[in-house]
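The data are quoted verbatim here:
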Amino acid sequence: MDRPLNGSANGGDTTQETGQGISWSLPVLGNARRTSIEDHHGVVRHRSRSVSRLQRTSLAGPLPAKLGFPDEREKLAQDEGNEAQKLGSFSGVFVPTTLNVLSILMFLRFGFLLGQSGVLGMMAMLIISYAIDLITAMSISAIATNGTVRGGGAYYLISRSLGTEFGGSIGIVFYLGCVLNTGMNAVGLVDCFKQNFGVVSGSKSHFLYEGFWWEYLWASIILLLCTAICLAGSSVFSRASNGLLIVLLISTFSIPLSACIKQPFKNERLGIEFTGFSSVSFFDNLYPRLTKGAAGSQIKRRENFQDLFGILFPATSGIFAGTSMSGDLKNPSRSIPKGTLYGLALTFSTYTIVILTLAASVTRESLYRDVNIIQDTNMSGFLIVLGEFSTSFFSSLMGIIGAAKVLQAISRDALLPGLSIFAKGTKKNDDPITSILITLAIAQITIFFDINQIASFVSMAYLMTFLVTNLACFLLKIGSAPNFRPSFHYFNSTTAFIGTIISGASMFFTDGVYATGCVCVLVTLFLLIHYMAPPKTWGDVSQSLIYHQVRKYLLRLRPEHVKFWRPQILLFVNNFESQYKMIHFCNSLKKGALFVLGRVLVTDDFATAVPVVRKEQTAWNKFIEFSKVKAFINITAAPNIEWGVRNVVLSAGLGGMRPNVVVIDQFRKDNSDASLEPGLPPIRPTRRMPSNLSDGEGDTLRKTRTDSFERDPPMNIQSYLTVLEDLLFQLRMNVAVARGFENIELPGTNDDSPAKFIDLWPIQMSAEISSDGGRKGTNYLTTNFDTYTLILQLGCILNTVPSWKRSCSLRVAVFVEYETDVEEERRRVMTLLEKLRISAEVLVFWLASGDLQTYRIIVNGDRNNVDKAMLDAVEQALEEEDWWNELGRYRTTSRSSRSQRQTPTGSGSTTPREGGRRRAGLEGLKRVIESSRRRSIGPGVSLGMQTHRLLDSMVEYNSDGNESSSEESDSYLSESENENEPEGDGPMAASDVPIINQPEETTGQTTAASTMATPSPRAMFMKKGRVASSAKFSSAPIPTTKVVSEEGTGPSIMFADSSPPRRGSGAAAGLESIHNCSSGTPGQPPVTSAEGDTESQPRASGYPSQAAVPLSFNDLPGRAQHLILNELIKSQSRDTAVVFTTLPTPVEGVSHDKASCEAYVGDLEVLCDGLPPCLLVHSNSVTVTMNL
C-alpha cells in the first residue's frame, strides 16, 4: 500500500513504492509549503519557497553521487555572488563618466583658452560642446532603455540598432579612438610629471630623467600599471576609480577655494598676477581677444575659434566611459541614463566654476604668459599635480578596459575573420584578458606618435560615434517600429536629428582633413564587414525604414506608363536544381523590375499543406539569398494546378507593382514535366548548385521537395492548356513559354562556348478579315505588332545586361518567301529598329532559295534531291494530316497526267473531259487545305493571335451577306473525307472569329482576335455576316511602320493599317498560291484578259516549277509552317545562346478537347525541336512608344 506523500510528520522522507521496486524520497522542509510535484521520465521535482531539490533513491539505497542532481542553491548562490560583483549606477557609470570628462586639459589648457576667447567665448564653446554631449546622452539613454544591454558599450547599442555594417565599422573606429586616447593620456601624464619633477624641466623637484626613451619608459610603466588593474577585475577597477575620483574632485575644487583664501600676489619671473576675486579682472576677461604666440599656442598664426573649439571639445567628450562598462553593470538600462546624465551635470558645473573663478582672479596678461596658470596660482601645487595624475591615469585605465570590452564584443559577433581569439573571457567575471593584452600592445605603439595628431584623431573618433549614435536614435524614432518603446522619454526625433547634424558639422569644423580621413576609414570598414561578415539575426533599423518607405511609395505607385514599361516577371517554378538556369536567365531579363517565383502545391488537405508551404517558403528564400537572385517567392496550395496558377497570378505583387509577363515551361510529352507541376520528378540538373553554398546549405536546399507533395499526380495536357488559355484570354497577361533552358549557357559559365548571339525571330502572324456586307470584297489584314515589338524589347533588354552584352551580340532574323521581297523587308525592319532605338544586326532570309529541304518537299513537292532522313521526318510529322495525304495523291495524279501527255502516242493536248477532272481535282485540293486550316480553328488548334488595332469599319456586321455553299460536290474528295468534313466548312466560313474594338481608354492592351469556335461555323457566319481567316505565320514583308503624328492616349507607333497582301508578293504575285490559281489547267499559262493583259508576272527566284502544285508558305496549315521554320531557325541559329520568337496561341476553348490539346502541343514540339533554348512570346499589351 502506498504511503501518502505527506505521511511523515517528523520531517523524514516520504516514500512511494512502485511496481519496479523504486521509491521516491521527497524531503519535507519544516513547515515549507510544497507548491508542485512533477513526474517526468522518472523524476519527481519538489519545489518549495526557497529551494528546489531533486533526489532519486531506491529500496537498495541512494544512487551514486555522480548520478544525482546538483543542489540548485549552489547555482543560486553563485549567481547571487556574480550579481554582487556587478557595478551599480554610481561606481559603474557616474564615476567613469565624471573621471573621463574632467580631462587633464582643464589643468593644462583652460588658462590659454580663457585668455583667447574670454568668458563669453569660452562659455559659448562649452555650452555647444555640452549640448552635443547632452543630446547624445539622451540618444544613448533612449536606445539603452529599449531592451537588454549586454557587453560592448556603444558598439553594442549601435550594432543592434543600425545593423552589422554600421555597428561593426563604428565599433572599430571607437576602439581605435579609445586606444589612441590611452596612449595620449599616458604621454600627457609623463609630460605633467616632467614639468614638475624633470631633471631639466622640473619646477618642484629634479629626479625624473628626461629624454625620448626615458619618457617612453615612464609611459610604458603607466600603461602596465593600468593593465594590471584591469586584469585584476572590475571590482579592483571600481575601487581604484572611486579613489581617483575623490582625488580629482579635491584637486578641482581647490581652484575656487584658492581664489577665496589665497592672498593676491604678482610673480615677475613667471609673468603672472593673481588678484583674488576681482570684478576688474572678471570684466577684463569677459570678451574674446585673439592673439598670436601666446603660451600654449601650437600654431604660428593668430588663433581662431575653430582652433580653440578643437582644443576644448576633447575635454568634454568622454561620455561613453560609463556605457563602455555595460557588461559589468547590474542593470545597464537603468544605470546608463542615470549615471551619464548625473556625470554630465557635475562636470558642466565644475567646468563653469573653474572658468568663472579663473576669470575673476587672474589678469588677462597672466593667461597669455603662463600655460600652467592654474597650478601656479593654487594654494597647493601638489593638489593640482594629483588632479592631473588622477584624470590622466583614469583615462588611460578606462581606455584599456573600455577598448578591450568593445573588442571582445566585436570578436564575439565574428564580424571580421581572425578576431575569434579576442572573444574569450575569464570564467568568473568574463574579463577580456586577450583583448586587454592586445590593447596594451597597440597603445605601446601609439606612444611613438605625435600627441597633437593623436588628439585630432581621438576627437574625430568620438564625434563620429556621437553622430552614428544620434543617427541610430533618429532612425529608430522615425521608423515608428511598435517595439521601440524606450522607458527614457526625454528625447524625440528632432533632438536626435539635431545631434546628428551638429556632430557632423563639429567634425569638419574642428579639422576637415582628419574628419575626411575618419569618414574614409569608416566607409572602408563598412564595406569590409558588408562583404566578409556572415548574416546576423539582430535586425536593424534599416528594415523598418525600408518597410516604411516601401509602403509609402507603393501607395503612390500608379500603373506604369508605357514609356517606363519594364518586364515584371512571374516565373512558375518547381525545382531550383533543374530550373536554376531559367531562374538566372529571368533575373537578367527583368531590367531592375519585379521578379516573382511562383510555386503551386496541389493538395486537397489544406491543414497538412500549411507546414509544407512554410518549409518551402524558407527553402526558396534561402535559395534566393545564396544564389544572389533578386526575386520574391509566392507559394500557394490549391486543389488543382489551374486554380493554383490563377491564385498566384492574381495575388502576385502589391499595389502598382505587379507582374506583366508570365513565364511557364513548355509541356513535355516525354515526361509530362512542366514547371507548373509540383509533383513531377525533377529534370536531371545540367548545372551545379551555386558554388557559394556550403554542403549543408546545398543539402538543405535539395531537401525542399517534401514527401507529401511528391505523390501529387502529374499535370495532364488539358490542365496545361487551361492554364495557358487563362493567362492569354482571361487574365490578359503577356505570356512566354520557355523551352530548353536547362541547357542554356549562361554568360561567364563557359568562355569557350560557341553561343555568341541573342537571336530574335519576331515571326509575323496575320489574319485576314473580310466583309460580305456593305463593302463587299473588302479585306483587312491584322498583325501581331505588340508581340513583334515585345520580342524586340526583351532581346534589347537582355543585351543591356553587362554579362550578356560582353558575351553575345544581338541579331534580328526575319524571313520572306521570295528573293524580290528581301531588300524591302530589310528596309522596313531596319526602319522599325531605328524608330525603337534598338541596335542590332538584321538578317533577312527567303524560303524559296532552295536551301530548305522541308520547303522543297512541302511546297515544291521535290522528293528527289533531299535527304531521306529529312523526307522521313516530314512524312512522320504530317502523316496524320488529311491535306498532306490528298496533296500527295494529287501530285501523283498530276505527274501521271503529264507523263501521259508527254508520251510519243499522246497528242500533247488536253481534252475537255480531262481538263474538267483536273480542274475539279484542284478545286477539291483547295477545299482540303482550307478545311484543314478551318478545322484547326474549330477544335482549337489555331495559331491564334491578338490584333493590335482594328478600324471601326472592320467590325461592322452585316447580316445580309451571302454565304458560299460548302455542299458542292467534290469529285476528288473521297466519301469518307466528305463524311468527316465539319458542317459548314465552306471557303467563306474560314474563321468565325468576332472582332470587337476595345474602348479608347484601354490603350495599354490589344483587342481580342480569337474566341472559341462554335460547333456550327455556318450558323456563326450567318449571324455575323463576315469571315475571319485562320491567324497563322506569314512570310509577307512586315507592314510599313506608322508613327502617330499627334500625341494622345493611344499607341504612338504601330504597323500601318492595310488591306491583305496578295498571296505572295513581289514578282511572284498571282502565281505562287493555290488560292490564286484559276480553274484552268495546272501547268498552263494563266488566262489572258480580253484587253490582252496577262495575270502573271515574271517568276521570283525559287518559285515552284510548273509541274508542281502552286502552293505558298502562307497557304500551309500550322504544322507544315512549323516544319519549315524549325529547319530555318535551326540552320541559322546554331551559334545562338537563346532564341526569342513568336508564340502561336491556341483558340480559346481548345482545352476542352484532349485531341486538340495534343495537336497544339505537338505543333509546338515541331516548331521547337532541336532548337537552342527558346522563349516563345505572346503580348497582350503595348510595350514600346515613340513619345518623349
